[in-house]
Amino acid sequence: MARTKDFDEKEVLNKAINLFWLKGYNGTSMQDLVAGLGISRSSLYDTYGDKHTLYVKALESYQCEASGRLCAIIHNSKSAKETIRALLEYITSELLNDQSHKGCFLVNAEVEVAPHDAEVNQMICQNDQQVEDVFYKVISKGQESGEITNKQDARALARFTFNTVKGIRVAAKTTNDKAVFDDIIKLAISVLD
């Protein structure tokens, strides 16, 4: 007869996200996971396989939740520029409220793990393309309505905006000066004029 798990898998996965996010993949040992997740080593292996599999599941969960929050902002904004500004301000606010300066879990994975791990690289590339496509759709809609300049290609503007997001996420690891990010957002929005 199979044993039932005596822990909440979602709660454990959230703890794993926080641990990997704070310490990085390479900085998190199996002992860190056992202690931080509050489950036995055998339960960890039985439920999640190995450290790498748990890391990938943590990235997937984080990506899914982040996508949901971005979609909510897009659906609640009225104009294209308002949507872009709201997305940039939300991302900045989320980062500035993090006292640990962890940055973005996905960007951290892109820098630390993706160059050496084909599975993580593919996941990051797919996520990046999805987010870029979101910006592209918003910008294209804004160009069609005349709200956003047609002087630049919509795809190029989407790539620029997404690269701005990545830059904000990296900068937030070392500074929490809101004025720095306000300047970045102001300039990024001005490119759309």
TrEMBL record:
<protein>
    <submittedName>
        <fullName>TetR/AcrR family transcriptional regulator</fullName>
    </submittedName>
</protein>
<dbReference type="InterPro" id="IPR011075">
    <property type="entry name" value="TetR_C"/>
</dbReference>
<feature type="DNA-binding region" description="H-T-H motif">
    <location>
        <begin position="29"/>
        <end position="48"/>
    </location>
</feature>
<keyword id="KW-0238">DNA-binding</keyword>
<keyword id="KW-0805">Transcription regulation</keyword>
<dbReference type="InterPro" id="IPR036271">
    <property type="entry name" value="Tet_transcr_reg_TetR-rel_C_sf"/>
</dbReference>
<dbReference type="InterPro" id="IPR001647">
    <property type="entry name" value="HTH_TetR"/>
</dbReference>
<dbReference type="Pfam" id="PF00440">
    <property type="entry name" value="TetR_N"/>
</dbReference>
<dbReference type="GO" id="GO:0003677">
    <property type="term" value="F:DNA binding"/>
</dbReference>
<feature type="domain" description="HTH tetR-type">
    <location>
        <begin position="6"/>
        <end position="66"/>
    </location>
</feature>
<dbReference type="InterPro" id="IPR009057">
    <property type="entry name" value="Homeodomain-like_sf"/>
</dbReference>
<dbReference type="Pfam" id="PF16925">
    <property type="entry name" value="TetR_C_13"/>
</dbReference>
<keyword id="KW-0804">Transcription</keyword>
